[in-house]
Design a protein that fits this description.
The structure holds two protein chains of two kinds. Chain A has seven helices and five strands. Chain A is α+β, with helices and mostly antiparallel strands. Chain A has a five-stranded antiparallel beta sheet. The two termini of chain B are 33 Å apart. The longest helix of chain B is centred in the first third of the chain and has 36 residues. Chain B has a single domain, classed as Cytochrome C Oxidase, Chain A (Up-down Bundle), CATH 1.20.210.10. The model of chain B has no long low-confidence stretch (mean pLDDT 92). The chains are: A alpha+beta, B mainly alpha.
């Protein structure tokens, strides 16, 4: 006897095996990300006054990425629908766009990551904190662009407030703060220096963990979809029903990955 | 086949887990005395972790004992191995894999390749865990619960291996759980309706859901701890954490977060351990009393309620963390409610014995012993579930006694019963009945001698995780004062250790029997030697690829024993009376 219902629906459940499997898998994924979101809430609620930075991330790239993933969600459905309509060429086109969207998402995310890892957080000997992007570093000094300065005992969470204060101050003086000059800091003045990696702050820690795990899901999903777009698509000739099912199942996973981002974007970028 | 692979691997891990506790029990009973023979072996393998013991007079080296660090490592690994690498894979993966497809009339699991991947991941995780014994500094030391910030503060690499291994094992169990549920939903034979499913399958079904939904939060817990250890984050490290000096961490984390994530798995895990055992026992009891299980439907509903409730009781492990009285009250209430379905199940199984024509063979002896032993384990849990009594008993040997009564003479007895019961189906031969009985009576006596005194020790106030078994504690205190330990409780350490060694020796007949009977056991007379009704016995022996020789149509409920007017005293599920 062979395993039944691999490509046909079982009458009383109305599902084929892989579809049951993927829904169960997604249920477990919900618990995985659910636990991480709960950790986010607990850490945020428990954070000391002023230590949870809001508005730290650049909304622009995150918003573009949201649109990219929504687009890919549409094309992944269109690809499956094209198969059901027996139009293999359109499937190739739509699913190709899905893979490109995934790559674009990962590329934008990498740029965002890099801007955090090159963002230096410096505590000076006089108890002030300066942070900004590293432009130049020699044995004697470092140069930070767009520097913001505030007392060291305030956490990173104080940064947006410090910017506002500086802008207001500059406005009163009649100047334009947007072109803050690069700041050169001698290494002798520096007490401690880190970058804005996950080690810098609990918010950045959960940001990198959540988005990193999500990015791994994007990459894994993209690999599977790319395989069925490329070498795996030979199956269309021999087992069209089963191939369409595989596209459907990988599409369900892809929708889940998109959905996670729909939650990640507001809680990390906007709130 | 994969079921048998799982079974043998997990039995090996169980042996390793037992070896660890044997070393620890020596340290508890005879602190500071060299371990005979094995001490030298440990020194060879683990180097400085085994501490040298000098003769008090001559100052000559007389052997090696385990150091306090090594005691902690062994304690952590004993718990981890027994729970995640021995009992769960044996109860769920091994029995489930072998028996569930047979009992529902399926040719195989729904995803055979996923099944294989799940086993390979399990093996890989186990090997990573095992490899940590051989790294400098030894394996993880923070207990099987790996509480932060302790787990992050210990400067050895063991915790890293522990976390990586756990992530792999969790992934393996996730694949297994998906496969089990899909199999039970999709591959039931025609006529195998939900209420005709043997109770064992129901138990495995609920267990699979627990694994599917409870393990991911632990995976998150492990990932975040991995980030704390590797990437320098502070998820579990509060501001101002000082380990000998003020730690250089960004702070702002919450140690309680780890405990919540851990116990969100930890409590359903208890039911992952016990539900398959209940399933095995009910199959064996129905078969050997020759009458239907009493209250099949209430068993099924109870197991579903158990599964649901097990997700909302986790914080009863955390009464001492200062969560606040309102939260404690909530979890205390749910904890009391969850005992109701457990009692229903146990009562149904007890009542099933009434009026039966009981066959006292080896599997039945173990199954019968399960009932009162699990009862003791369960009832001693009630004082731990109330927060006011838990405050006194928390972290004492009382807790150790409680959960070992649930898992050792509870779950492991049921699993051994299952091995004796399904062995003829796997090999076509019986295991030796005589040696089976020797195994049973010795195990039964020494099991109780091992764990019973722990309740007394715990109520006297003896704490767990002390490498010297409380000797230092007792000297530091006046035995007559509150909190002091009288010598009679310390004497029990020696008794327990000797009983534990005797328990270990009692398993030798079982191990020999298991392998000897493959070739030399008594041959079965038919494909259905126990004259059972369920589909697992209506197949060729051993079941070939595809399990059944022809299409199966189910027409009966699972336990049609002693049906009036039937030819034999059992009516298989696929035959008309």
């Amino acid at each position: 006897m062979e395993v039944p219902y691999t490509d046909t629906n079982r009458p009383d459940t109305g599902l084929y095996n892989a579809k049951v499997g993927i829904w169960l898998f997604l249920a477990s994924e919900v618990m995985l990300f659910g636990a991480l979101f709960s950790a986010y809430i607990l850490l945020r609620v428990g954070a000391m006054e002023g230590h949870w930075p809001t508005g730290l991330l650049d909304v622009g790239p995150g918003f573009v990425n949201t649109l990219v993933l929504i687009l890919s969600s549409v094309t992944v459905v269109m690809a499956w629908a094209s198969l059901k309509l027996n139009n293999f060429k359109k499937f190739k086109l739509y699913q190709g766009i899905t893979v490109l969207c995934a790559l674009l998402f990962v590329a934008i995310k990498s740029v965002e990551y890099k801007s955090k890892f090159t963002h230096h957080d410096v505590i000076l000997n006089d108890g002030m904190r300066v942070d900004g992007h590293l432009v130049e570093e020699t044995d004697e000094f470092i140069v930070l662009s767009h520097p913001v300065s505030y007392p060291a005992e305030k956490g990173i969470g104080y940064r947006p407030t410090a910017i506002k204060a500086a802008e207001a101050h500059a406005h009163e003086a009649g100047g334009d703060h947007h072109h803050a000059e690069d700041r050169k800091i001698s290494k002798e003045e520096i007490d401690k220096r880190t970058t804005w990696g996950p080690w810098a702050n609990t918010y950045l820690a959960i940001y990198f963990t959540l988005t990193g795990l999500h990015a791994l899901h994007v990459i894994a999903g993209a690999l599977v979809i790319a395989y069925f777009w490329g070498p795996g698509s030979k199956m269309w000739k021999t087992h069209p029903e089963q191939f369409a099912n595989r596209i459907e199942v990988s599409g369900l996973f892809w929708h889940f990955v998109d959905l996670v981002w729909i939650f990640l974007f507001p809680i990390l970028y906007l709130l | 086949m994969i079921g048998i692979q799982y079974g043998l691997t997990s039995l090996l891990f169980m042996l390793l887990g037992f070896f660890l506790i044997a070393m620890m029990r020596w340290s508890i009973a005879y602190p500071g005395q060299p371990i005979p023979v094995i001490g030298y072996l440990l020194h060879t393998i683990m180097g400085d972790m085994a501490s040298p013991v000098l003769d008090p007079q001559t100052k000559e080296l007389i052997g090696y004992a385990i150091s306090n660090d090594l005691y902690n490592s062994f304690g952590a690994m004993h718990g981890t191995i027994m729970v995640f690498l021995a009992v769960v894979p044996l109860a769920f993966a091994a029995f489930g894999n072998y028996v569930v497809p047979l009992q529902i009339g399926a040719p195989d699991m729904a995803f055979p390749r996923l099944n294989m991947a799940s086993y390979h991941l399990f093996l890989l995780g186990g090997l990573v865990m095992f490899a940590s014994f051989f790294i400098p500094g030894g394996p993880a030391q923070a207990g099987w619960t790996s509480y932060s910030p302790l787990a992050t503060s210990i400067p050895t690499d063991g915790q890293f291996y522990w976390l990586v291994a756990m992530v792999i094992i969790i992934t393996s169990s996730l694949l297994g759980a998906v496969n089990f549920i899909a199999t039970i939903i999709q591959l039931r034979a025609p006529g195998m309706t939900w209420m005709r499913m043997p109770f064992f399958c129901w138990a495995q079904f609920v267990t699979a859901f627990l694994l599917l939904l409870a393990f991911p939060p632990l995976e998150v817990g492990a990932l975040l701890q991995l980030m704390d250890n590797v990437a320098g984050t502070s998820f579990y490290l509060p501001t101002g954490l000082a380990v000998s000096t003020l730690s250089d961490v960004s702070g702002g984390g919450s140690p309680l977060l780890y405990q919540h994530l851990f116990w969100f798995l930890g409590h359903p895990e208890v039911y992952v351990l016990i539900l398959p055992a209940m399933g095995v026992v009910s199959e064996i009891i129905a078969n050997n009393t020759r009458k239907p299980i009493w209250g099949y439907k209430s068993l099924v509903y109870s197991v579903l309620v158990l599964g649901f409730l097990s997700f909302i009781v986790w914080a009863h492990h955390m009464y001492l963390t200062g969560m606040g009285t309102k939260i404690s009250t909530f979890f205390q209430t749910t904890t009391m409610i969850i005992s109701i379905p457990s009692v229903i199940i146990l009562s149904c199984l007890f009542i099933s014995l009434w009026g039966g024509r009981i066959r006292f063979n080896t599997p039945m002896l173990f199954a019968l012993a399960f009932l009162p032993m699990f009862g003791i384990g369960g009832l001693t849990g009630l004082p731990l579930g109330f927060n006011y009594s838990d405050i006194l008993l928390h972290d004492t040997y009382y807790v150790i006694g409680h959960f070992h009564y649930v898992v050792a003479p509870g779950t492991i007895f049921a699993l051994i019963a299952g091995i004796y019961f399904w062995y003829p189906k796997m090999t076509g031969r019986y295991m030796s009945e005589f040696w089976g009985r020797v195994h049973f009576w010795c195990s039964f006596v020494f099991m109780n001698l091992t764990f019973q005194p722990m309740f007394a020790q715990g109520m006297a106030g003896m704490l767990r995780r002390m490498a010297d078994g409380g000797v230092g504690y007792s000297i530091a205190n006046n035995p007559d004062a509150i909190g002091g330990l009288a010598d009679r409780y310390l004497q029990l350490n020696v008794n327990i250790t000797l009983a534990a060694y005797a328990l270990g020796i009692s398993q030798i007949p079982f191990i020999i029997n298991l392998f000897y009977s493959i070739k030399n056991g008594k041959k079965v007379e038919s494909d259905n030697p126990w004259e059972s009704t369920t589909l697992d016995w209506q197949t060729p022996t051993p079941p070939p690829h595809g399990n059944f020789s022809g299409p199966i149509k189910v027409v009966n409920g699972p336990y049609e024993y002693s049906v009036p007017g039937a030819k034999a005293d059992f009516v298989p599920q696929n035959q008309k009376a």
